[in-house]
Amino acid sequence: MAGSSSSGIGGRWFLAWRRSLRPPRRLKFTREGKFFVGITLGVGFAAINTANNLLYLLLGMLLALIVVSGIMSELSLRDLTVLRRLPLRAQVGRAHLVEIEVYNHKGRVPSYAIEVEDLRAGQPADKRCFFLKISPKSAQVAAYRRTPTRRGRDVHVGFRIATRFPFGLFEKSREVPADGELVIYPAVDPVHLSATGQGRSPGADNILGRGRGEEFVGVKLMRSGEDPRDVYWRKSAAVGQMVMRERAREMRPDVTLTLDAVRPPGSGDEWVATFERGIRDVASRSVAHLKRGDRVAVLTTAGGIVRADRAFGADPLLRYLALLEPVLGVSRPKPPAPEGAE
To answer: Which residues on neighbouring strands pair with residue 43, listed in sequence order?
Structure first.
């Protein structure tokens, strides 16, 4: 325990040290900026070689534009706060929106041509939002659309704020940390279930019994301690005794789905592709059963289990499947599946 805590502290210190070594701003030449700097250098060499005052004057004007560009771009980047709003859920193959809000804390100076890039761990930055003008003491909101291609955790680590204001010669940027996490659910395909379903016991749709369901199957004499809300008053007045309605048993079938989550030693990418297809298939069938009103249990050969029903929805089950990773080793013996297991 002490070794792990010390290594964690050392890792955080190393990251903080690396972050402190980074320059507060990064400057990149645009295509126009490269031409501009080349012309400036050419004018400078010509002025030194010829000692022409007009060339010196032109060189001073070109250098002044570079200085003005640096000052104005710095004013645009300062005192900006960026917030990210992630959706409640996301799914493979379905587009979702991520909102980016930028607030300008400056009292009098607006920010122009601000580009915010959302940074994600281990993935290339490909989503940006552009803000033409952010007035002082105000906020602007934009959104980008993204379609995930794989399930699991989508970890956001920060933002890259950049601007090419005012002349488009240079791109000045800075990075700000901002943690965020979005769990990407596996894709769900439409599944057509049979009329009775494999999770229903034979003849279960026609079996009636005493219970607390919504339907009534008959009447009976009231006994001491029973709920008076089920009293059948019309029948009671006719027979002169308290008569109660007898409710039917609520028949909700259970469905058990099994998923192989143990990866054999030496297996390659083909097994991983089969595992991902299995997760997609289990997720699709689970959602179809839940829509029909069945209770669903997903068992894995690694010993994991998750249950869901219509009352709680499919979110707990899909989240479990989204974060499920294969286990390397020998599979455990499967638990006895209840009746109606698939």
So the answer is: none
Q: 269-292 and 315-323 are packed helices; what angle lies between their axes, rounded to 10 degrees?
A: 180
| pLDDT given for residue 237 in this prediction | 72
Query: Span 4-12, mean pLDDT?
Result: 52
Nearest one of 102, 86, 80 to 174, comparing CA atoms: 80
Tokens encoding 329: 């080793």
> What are the residues facing 161 on neighbouring strands?
116, 174
Q: What is the pLDDT of residue 339?
A: 44
Q: What is the CA radius of gyration of the chain?
A: 33
Q: Which residue has the higher pLDDT, 268 or 125?
A: 268
Reduced 3-state DSSP string for the chain? CHHHHHHHHHHHHHHHHHHHHCCCCEEEECHHHHHHHHHHHHHHHHHHHHCCHHHHHHHHHHHHHHHHHHHHHHHHHCCEEEEEECCCCEECCCCEEEEEEEEECCCCCCEEEEEEEEEECCCCCCCEEEEEEECCCEEEEEEEEECCCCCEEEEEEEEEEEECCCCCCEEEEEEEEEEEEEEEECCCCCCCCCCCCCCCCCCHHHCCCECCCCCEEEEEECCCCCCHHHECHHHHHHHCCCEEEEEECCCCCEEEEEECCEECCCCCHHHHHHHHHHHHHHHHHHHHHHHHCCEEEEEECCCCEEEECCCCCCHHHHHHHHHCCCEECCCCCCCCCCCCCC
80-89 per-position pLDDT tens digit: 999 999 998 8
| 136 has a pLDDT exceeding 50 | yes
φ/ψ of residue 251, rounded to 5: -100, 100
Tell whether the model's pLDDT for residue 199 goes beyond 70. Answer: no
Cis peptide before 166 (omega within 30 of 0): yes
The tokens of 313 are what?
């929805």
Task: Classify residue 40 as exposed, middle or buried by CB count within 10 Å of its CB (0-12, 13-18, 19+).
Answer: middle
Distance CA 104, CA 33 (A): 27
Q: Comparing C-alpha atoms, which of 263, 258, 252 is closest to residue 309?
A: 252
Cα-based distances in Å from 152 to 182, 279, 288, 291: 8, 12, 22, 24
Q: Tell me whether strands 26-29 and 170-185 are parallel, antiparallel or unpaired.
A: antiparallel
